[in-house]
Design a protein that fits this description.
six-stranded mixed β-sheet; single chain; alpha/beta; 447 residues
């Protein structure tokens, strides 16, 4: 139906000479902990964590410094041992502020006592989910949804299939690729543990076919594990989107406004699965992640980095920047966020830091020529140009009717637009306005 594609729409963005090929062969290097970490208490979708430490407290690696603020939330742990020097606001990549715990590293690397589980097969589903929750694990592909919530489906919801996202379809990013190559056994073990927690018998790992070495590594690791298969997917952005991945693998269509859970699926990123393995087998909370640093840096790399490390430390680890850097991107070039400062901390959802040149700068917009390319590229089968016109006229009601709340903000429409319209940004703004209005209306009704 879609030719070589497994879902409607999508694109194949050109990466240039500084893309995946440069970094795909670079093994994961552990980045030294910085002198000071700034650990935001809001690193996930849902309620921010609540600080459990105060200025002057001494903390250890892995110690809880922020407790979950609700069911859809996640605790936050210290990534270094040392002294809390402040509990104050910090700026996040999206420009908002979050309360954060600032810790000066004492370089003693003193850990809290960990409690690994030697026989997780003997634990109940609830006990496995609790370990994941207590470890502060969230979706590490960028969405940062608390993983324990996915492992605790509502009564009446039946999970039939577990789908793991190893697509890593954004240009430049290679963190998941390296993780699949170097930690294939742990990923498969973590997947097995997730299957136990959800009581499912079938799991599929989707990997784009431009990563044959990762596919081979995962297939080898899964050879003797019942119920796990690895599926090679054609290269197509945004193959890693939850709804696109579910359709590509199962041909089940997640309803508008719905979740994969509504069609019997749970989707997780390979990095999340690895973190689950480390939490259950070793008792380790989520305090570090693999992050790609690429683009116009002297020595691109993939780094295992402590949460709370400033962006500037990663750039320095790559030998600094080359000339003509015009923009910093926190995340990938399609769905990441442009940042104007390098003291922003790495969080649980930070898959990449990119230093880009002229190609990243927004060109001058011109009038829509009604070519329809944005409609062809949209993986959600929306009408981006039509929504954009309504939004620019302040008609958010019409934009909502056209389905703007179903936009996944993948950036495909903006990428293909010959008039260089800021279609994705327009939809993103409209979603925030509509969400704010809904909250205000609900508050007024309750009051």
């Amino acid at each position: 139906m879609f030719g070589t594609r497994l879902f409607p729409g999508g694109i194949h963005p050109h990466e240039g000479e500084n893309g995946k090929a440069v970094n795909g062969g670079n093994a994961i290097a552990e980045l030294a902990a910085p002198p000071r970490v700034v650990i935001p208490l809001s690193q996930h979708i849902g309620a921010p964590a609540k600080a459990t430490v105060n200025k002057g407290d001494l903390v250890k690696i892995g110690q809880v410094i922020g407790e979950a603020g609700g069911f859809v939330s996640a605790p936050v742990h210290s990534s270094v041992s040392g002294k809390v020097v402040a509990v104050q606001n910090c700026v996040l990549a999206n420009g908002s502020e979050s309360l954060a715990v600032v810790i000066d590293n004492d370089y003693q690397d003193t850990w809290v006592e960990l409690t690994p589980c030697d026989h997780p097969e003997s634990l109940t589903k609830e006990e496995l989910a609790k370990i994941v929750r207590d470890a502060g694990i969230v979706g590490m592909g960028g969405a940062t949804f608390p993983t324990a919530v996915k492992l605790s489906p509502a009564p009446g919801k039946t999970i039939e299939k577990l789908i793991i996202n190893g697509a890593e379809c954004e240009p430049y990013l290679t963190a998941d690729h390296r993780l699949m190559l170097e930690k294939a056994d742990e990923i498969i073990d973590g997947l097995h543990l997730m299957m136990l927690a959800l009581d499912v018998k079938e799991a599929v790992i989707g990997v784009e076919n431009n990563k044959p070495d990762a596919i081979t590594a995962l297939q080898s690791a899964a050879a003797n594990v019942e119920g796990i298969t690895v599926k090679a997917l054609p290269v197509r952005y945004p193959q890693g989107g939850e709804k696109q991945l579910v359709y590509a693998i199962t041909k089940r269509k997640v309803p508008c406004g719905g979740l994969p859970l509504d069609v019997g699926c749970v989707v997780c990123n390979v990095g999340t699965v690895y973190a689950i393995d480390q939490a259950i087998r070793k008792g380790m909370p989520l305090i570090r992640r693999v992050t790609t640093v690429g683009g116009l840096v002297n020595n691109p790399g993939n780094f295992l980095v402590r949460v709370g490390t400033p962006v500037e430390a990663l750039i320095e680890a790559c030998g600094g920047m080359k000339a003509n850097v015009k923009q910093f991107i926190y995340g990938g070039p399609m769905m990441g966020m442009a940042i104007c400062r390098t003291d922003i901390p790495v969080t649980k959802g930070c898959s990449g830091i990119l230093c880009l040149g002229e190609e990243a700068m927004e060109p001058q917009e011109s009038a829509c020529i009604r070519c329809g390319r944005c409609i062809q590229a949209c993986p959600m089968q929306l009408t981006p140009a039509r929504m954009d016109a309504a939004i620019r006229n302040g008609n958010y009601e019409a934009a909502e009717q056209y389905g703007v709340m179903n936009c996944i903000e993948c950036g495909a429409c903006t990428f293909v637009c010959p008039a260089k319209r800021s279609l994705t940004q327009s939809c993103r703004m409209a979603k925030k306005v509509i969400t704010t209005r809904r909250k205000q209306a609900a508050a007024k009704k309750e009051g």
